[in-house]
Design goal:
Strand order of the largest sheet: 3-2-1-4-5-6-7
CATH topology: Rossmann fold
Oligomer: single chain
Shape: globular
Number of domains: 1
CATH class: Alpha Beta
Order of helices and strands: EHEHEHEHEHEHHHEH
CATH superfamily: NAD(P)-binding Rossmann-like Domain
Helix content: 40-55%
């Protein structure tokens, strides 16, 4: 506990899922948090609930913004500094998904997903880093995905955006290290969030997908949040430019429980 006392964090996509879990655990660890989301109603409700459960009413604030708009991101960063006096940590979690066969991906869908997942994350990282550079200290954690290197069918735009994030993280890490800013990514597998509900909650697809995960269950948002906490804290003070895979073994290969390995060895 108290690993983030004295720190100020900006968390994007904080209304639900992974972002909410990050905001909750960061507040519990002593950070002051600006919780950002494009959904005004949901982020206000989320912040009220976190404040009520943690008692940190003065330490967390909701902010509505679309990260694909530079002006929105700039306003959020300025509000964070005005409200809490600093910006030490960015958790760039906001993202969207889409499912379509490659030949059916529409221009509008492609551009919107890349605008949010990749360009929007770039805006957040750059605007936050400009503040962090002023006191030569900061930590940026980007929530990417195993889709960055382990692509899935019918997810061209999403796969591409997550692969781009890893290049962005590594590029930012090497440029920002001399300024005292660390930049890392988390690559979760499938997480039990609204974004992944179409698989996790499907009575057929869910159990089938689980056969590919050696640990045998879907990841919970709080588990990604704990990974973000580690990378944002001083425990990871010598780590930068890293993409930490947290997927329950999903991308290791097909486990024996899938039946395929057993059949091959008979």
């Amino acid at each position: 506990m108290n690993r983030l006392v004295g720190k100020v964090a900006l968390v994007t996509g904080a209304a639900q899922g992974i972002g909410r879990a990050v905001a909750e655990i960061f507040a519990a660890e002593g950070a002051r948090v600006l919780a950002l989301d494009v959904d005004a109603v949901r982020i206000e409700q989320t912040v009220r609930e976190i404040a009520a459960s943690s008692g940190a009413i003065e330490s967390i604030e909701a902010f509505t913004a679309d990260i694909s708009r530079r002006d929105d991101v700039n306003r959020a960063v300025r509000r964070c500094v005005e409200r809490f006096g600093a910006l030490d940590i960015l958790v760039a979690n906001a993202g969207i998904g889409s499912v379509a066969p490659f030949l059916e991906v529409e221009d509008a869908s492609w551009h919107r997903l890349l605008d949010v997942n990749l360009t929007g994350t770039f805006y957040c990282m750059q605007e936050a880093a400009r503040v962090m550079a002023g006191h030569r200290n900061g930590a940026i954690v980007v929530v990417a995905s195993t889709n960055a290197f382990w692509v899935e069918y019918h997810m061209t735009a999403y796969n591409t955006s997550k692969a781009g994030l890893i290049g962005l993280v590594r590029s930012a890490a090497i440029d920002l290290a001399p300024l005292g800013i660390r930049v890392n990514a988390i690559e979760p597998g499938i997480v039990n969030t609204p974004l992944a509900a179409f698989v996790v909650q499907d009575p057929v697809a869910g159990p089938e997908y689980l056969k590919r995960i050696p640990i045998g269950r879907f990841q919970e948002p709080v588990e990604v949040a704990r990974t973000a906490l580690y990378l944002a804290s001083d425990d990871a003070a010598y780590i930068t430019g890293h993409a930490l895979i947290a997927d329950g073994g999903l991308t290791l290969g097909l486990p024996a429980t899938s039946g395929i390995l057993g059949e091959a060895n008979e």
